[in-house]
């Protein structure tokens, strides 16, 4: 016979004989292995543009109205003695800055092109992370202050407004510097006439895997784990105070308001920022090729768009702190609403009397 095995050739109904070729060295031995090699390529997450455009469109109007109204009321009508007022104003400013950049993001994800230049792309990209980490810091500051004043009411009376202003300035300087690597890591190859932006920007590759892990772990420690521990601790201690342990309070009403506020800070933190930061570590490890496992890479890349959109929801959830957790805010809103209704009724009555 021959060197190779002979099999009947039945492709066209003939009865001739053909020789099968020898196996190719290092070739996949089964369809399962071929499928495994195919799935290890990074997926093309095609739905992310639609997801981003829809989410940012939903967030824009409520976020713009709520934060604009909150900032106006906070700056003009709330008593100067109100606790955490400065931190709330800075939180509203951070949210409003991000909300104002959303129309450009919506335009890009709908049209899939960026005609506004490199600077505006990186600025909007930067504002996203500036808002996220400024919100985390100011939520942490609000929790700490409410907890501290709850347990030290006499020191709260002597607390000066300039202390909060100094802390807020330090937060902005720290967060502004800490967020600068985000546009640097993503905009290093972006040209001024480039048509791509935001999620489509390429991530700069770091040569050392140890440096990648160290940088990402440091960002997670100071940007997520540290604030998480502080907020959980403050929430836990304020809850304990309401159960009668070591309560140096004039009344329980102040304790309930403080508990509601720190609990809301914790809810916003867990809903908006925890999913993103849990996934962020794996996302950076995937982008820097530290993680090579096929399944883990696919899960991480598919989860990232959902976590990123959740992080933007803080623009709509943060105003809950102002509208529902601050009695002075409620009083001012109800007072001005009743005044507006009264003036409208009076104008209608005067108009009807003139007609008569």
UniProtKB/TrEMBL annotation:
Single GO term (MF): G protein-coupled receptor activity
GO biological process, one term: G protein-coupled receptor signaling pathway
Domain of life: Eukaryota
Places the protein is found: Cell membrane
Polar residues bias locations: 9-18
Family matches, as Pfam families: 7tm_1 (PF00001)
InterPro entries with a match to the protein in the record: GPCR_Rhodpsn, GPCR_Rhodpsn_7TM
Keywords: Cell membrane, Disulfide bond, G-protein coupled receptor, Glycoprotein, Membrane, Receptor, Transducer, Transmembrane, Transmembrane helix
PROSITE patterns: G_PROTEIN_RECEP_F1_2
Record-level GO cellular component terms: plasma membrane
The UniProt record lists the keyword Transmembrane: yes
Span list, region Disordered: 1-22
Function: Putative receptor for purines coupled to G-proteins.
Protein name: Putative P2Y purinoceptor 10
Taxonomic lineage: Eukaryota, Metazoa, Chordata, Craniata, Vertebrata
């Amino acid at each position: 016979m021959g060197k190779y095995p002979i099999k009947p050739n039945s492709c066209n109904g003939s009865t001739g004989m053909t020789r099968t070729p020898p196996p190719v060295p290092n070739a996949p031995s089964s369809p399962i292995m071929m499928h495994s090699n195919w799935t290890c390529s990074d997926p093309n997450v095609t739905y992310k543009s639609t997801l981003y455009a829809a989410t940012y469109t939903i967030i824009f109007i409520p976020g713009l109205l709520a934060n604009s109204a909150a900032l106006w009321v906070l700056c003009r009508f709330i008593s100067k003695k109100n606790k955490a007022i400065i931190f709330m104003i800075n939180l509203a400013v951070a949210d409003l800055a991000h909300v104002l950049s959303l129309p450009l993001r919506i335009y890009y994800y709908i049209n899939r092109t960026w005609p506004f230049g490199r600077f505006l792309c990186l600025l909007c990209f930067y504002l996203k992370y500036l808002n996220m980490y400024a919100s985390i810091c100011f939520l942490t500051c609000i929790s700490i202050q409410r907890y501290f004043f709850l347990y030290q009411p006499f020191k709260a009376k002597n607390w000066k407004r300039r202390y909060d202003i100094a802390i807020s300035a330090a937060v902005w300087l720290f967060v502004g510097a800490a967020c600068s690597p985000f546009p640097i890591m993503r905009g290093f190859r972006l040209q001024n006439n480039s048509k791509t932006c935001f999620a489509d920007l390429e991530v700069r590759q770091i040569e050392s895997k140890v440096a990648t892990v160290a940088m990402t772990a440091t960002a997670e420690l100071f940007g997520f784990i540290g604030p998480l521990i502080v907020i959980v601790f403050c929430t836990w201690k304020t809850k304990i105070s309401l159960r009668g342990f070591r309560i140096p309070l004039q009344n329980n009403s102040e304790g309930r308001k403080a508990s509601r506020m720190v609990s809301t800070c914790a809810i916003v933190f867990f809903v908006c920022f925890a999913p993103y930061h849990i996934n962020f570590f794996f996302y950076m490890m995937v982008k820097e090729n530290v993680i090579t496992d096929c399944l883990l890479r696919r899960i991480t890349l598919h989860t990232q768009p959902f976590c990123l959109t959740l992080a933007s929801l803080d623009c709509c959830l943060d105003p809950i702190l102002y509208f529902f957790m601050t009695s002075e805010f409620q009083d001012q809103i109800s007072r001005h609403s009743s005044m507006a209704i009264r003036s409208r009724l009076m104008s209608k009555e005067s108009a009807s009397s003139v007609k008569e």
